[in-house]
Design a protein that fits this description.
By secondary structure, the chain is an alpha+beta fold. The protein has 6 helices and 17 strands. Among the domains are: 82 residues, Ribbon (Tumor Necrosis Factor Receptor, subunit A, domain 2), CATH 2.10.50.10; 90 residues, no CATH class.
Length: 298
């Protein structure tokens, strides 16, 4: 399209206004255009833009439209344009990233964090794990970290996880069992079929279910420091092994359970030996609770 320029016959703002009107007119017909001044005739023309995936090889002239050419490999143009060359696909997927869209003539390469990671400050960081006592409310995505919240009343989370939600406590009554240890935000409710929690007449070959209930009652909520004191009391005099790290609480609980089971298998004195160890470890409050529940006075 030609726009005739007549020097001295129009105010200085007339030509830009006319060109803007022509560009808007082109946009209204869904044919993007741009103003171009012919180098030979010095006439202002309105040229058509090149579609995505191409670039402008040659602008339009009075007798020919804009000439476009496809982008070469590893180059692209994403929008209608009158660029003299295509853009280079310069996005390279980095560490812990994966390609979600390859480089094409119409798009740059696109990357995102691999599963299990999320983007933060230009890096892909591993999704956080919700600690014991808290559950996942929104799993992590490539753009967002794991969202956690403390387990509400009646639910628990026993371990660290980036996917597990808080689980409801076991209903002992519905299972036909008796509640032994109430559930907390860190562990499930522990049920038992031990009748009346009575171990007053514990003998070799006694009720194994009641023995298990006793150990559950002692070990479930005991602190790490108290576990160490109980371990030392059960070991008796002599050289003591180096104390485990605090994160080894579960392993220490298992070790003590095995130690007590060996005592019971050897002489059947699990209840009596555990009460003595609790006294030696100066765990008087726990000793009283055990006596009250499992060894009631007759």
């Amino acid at each position: 399209m030609k726009v005739t320029e007549k020097t001295g016959q129009a105010p200085s703002w007339a030509l830009p206004a006319l060109l803007l009107a022509l560009v808007v007119r082109g946009a209204a017909t869904d044919a993007p255009t741009f103003p171009w001044r012919d180098a030979e005739t010095r006439e202002w023309l309105v040229c058509g833009q090149c579609p995505p995936g191409t670039f402008m090889l040659r602008p339009c002239s009075r007798g020919s439209p804009t000439a476009c050419r496809a982008c070469p490999p590893r180059h692209y143009t994403e929008f209608w344009n009158y660029l003299e060359r295509c853009r280079y696909c310069n996005v390279i997927c980095g560490e812990r990233e994966e390609e979600v869209r390859p480089c094409t003539s119409a798009h740059n390469r696109a990357c995102r964090c691999q599963p299990g990671f999320f983007a933060h400050a230009g890096f892909c960081l591993e999704h956080a794990q919700c600690p014991p006592g808290a559950g996942v409310v929104a799993p992590g995505t490539p753009s967002q970290n794991t969202q956690c919240q403390p387990c509400p009343l009646g639910t628990f989370s026993a371990g660290s996880s980036s996917s597990e939600r808080c689980q409801p406590h076991r209903n002992c009554t519905a299972l036909g069992l008796t509640l032994n240890v109430a559930g907390s935000s860190f562990h499930d409710a522990l049920c038992t079929s031990c009748p009346n929690f009575s171990l007053s007449t514990l003998e070799p070959g006694g009720t194994r279910e009641c023995e298990r209930a006793l150990l559950d009652f002692v070990f479930q909520d005991i602190s790490f420091k108290r576990l160490l004191r109980l371990q030392q009391a059960l070991a008796g005099p002599g050289p003591r092994p180096p104390p485990p790290r605090e994160e080894g609480r579960a392993a220490l609980q298992l070790q003590l359970r095995q130690q007590l089971a060996e005592l019971d298998a050897r002489d059947g004195a699990l209840g009596a030996r555990l009460l003595l160890a609790l006294r030696d470890a100066r765990l008087a409050g726990l000793e009283r609770s055990v006596r009250t529940r499992f060894f009631p006075a007759r």
